[in-house]
Amino acid sequence: MHDLPLVISLDHTSSTNSHLANMWRNEDGQLPPFLTVVTDFQGSGRGRLGREWVAPAGTSLLASILVPTKVDHSPLLPLAVGVVVSDLVQSLLPSKDVQLKWPNDVLVAGKKISGILCEQLSPEWAIAGIGINLLQTADQLPPVPATSIALEGGPAVSRDLLALSLAASLQDLIEIDPVELHALIEHRCSTLGHRVLVSLPVGTTLEGRAISLESDGALRVEDLTGTEHIIRAGDIAHLRTSATAPQLTTQGGRS
Ligand code: BT5
């Protein structure tokens, strides 16, 4: 049994990831593992690649967890967090199709309900930032395929209890052997087996089928000519399986 993680609750901050990183620096790294910061509102919530995470005050779980990382675990951290978040979302929406989309999204019926931003502070420490849409109405969500727990008919839940539950689950999950963790993520990541459209950071796209996950969390994609590519960064969209007319089912963030 572990001690329960400590949760610090703030009315507002710029970004819980930035807030926790500043605390860590100010305390020379002397903070308890799995210390969690939650807030009602972020003035500058961050996504990946300079993108924004937006949520009106009091509508979301906005949390950052301080995670001790082992070298062989750390590349898998965003996906391990994704497993924990998708389990939590599934427990709140038991009858819904909850998907973990590589590399960092949790979707409900193809719509984004959660985004994850992991940032490495040092070789030993990382921050796992998690946004989950809880209470938003349709007009409070950004103009992308997105949803919230309330819109999907789920219950109202305490933000601090959810954060505590995520931190405690993550504490358990990252203790498991990296090979087991990799297998668990492969089992849970809905992207595997899907036809995908990959938007690469250089601005080009690639269409193919996601076939497996490398040990460092990279995605192996077989393109339409049968050539395999290892994707370490980028956004993907799951495509419907259709020989003739591929249709997007979801977008991986703004392009
Ligand atoms: C992410 O980035 O999805 C990671 C988001 C992480 C947010 C958490 S909140 C707590 C912690 N503190 C922070 O400052 N950040 C973390 P990315 O894959 O780049 O997706 C960003 C894109 O998602 C945006 O460009 C929008 O298209 C979309 N988006 C923004 N807000 C959203 C929302 N509330 N719901 C669904 N989609 C959203």
- Between the first and last Cα atoms, what is the distance in angstroms? 44 Å
Helix content: 10-25%
Summarize model confidence as the mean pLDDT: 91
Instruction: List unreliable stretches of 5+ residues.
Output: 242-255
Bound molecules: biotinyl-5-AMP
Which percent band covers the strand fraction?
25-35%
What string, H for helix and E for strand, traces the elements in order?
EHEEHEEEEHHEEEEE
Sheet/helix structural class? alpha+beta
Rg is 18 Å
Q: Characterize the overall form.
A: globular
List keywords for this structure.
255 residues; alpha+beta; 7-stranded mixed beta sheet; 5-stranded antiparallel beta sheet; 4 helices; 12 strands; globular; binds biotinyl-5-AMP
Describe the structure.
- The protein is α+β, with helices and mostly antiparallel strands and 255 residues long.
- Helix content is 21%, strand content 31%.
- It has 4 helices and 12 strands; from the N terminus they run βαββαββββααβββββ.
- The strands form 2 sheets. Strands 1-2-3-7-6-5-4 form a 7-stranded mixed sheet, with helices on both faces. Strands 11-10-9-8-12 form a 5-stranded antiparallel sheet, with no helix packed on it.
- The protein is globular.
- The site of biotinyl-5-AMP has 33 residues, from helix 1, strand 3, strand 6 and strand 7.
- Residues 15-17, 42, 45-49, 51-55, 62-64, 104-105, 112, 115-117, 129-131, 133, 141-142, 144, 146, 253-254 line the site of biotinyl-5-AMP.
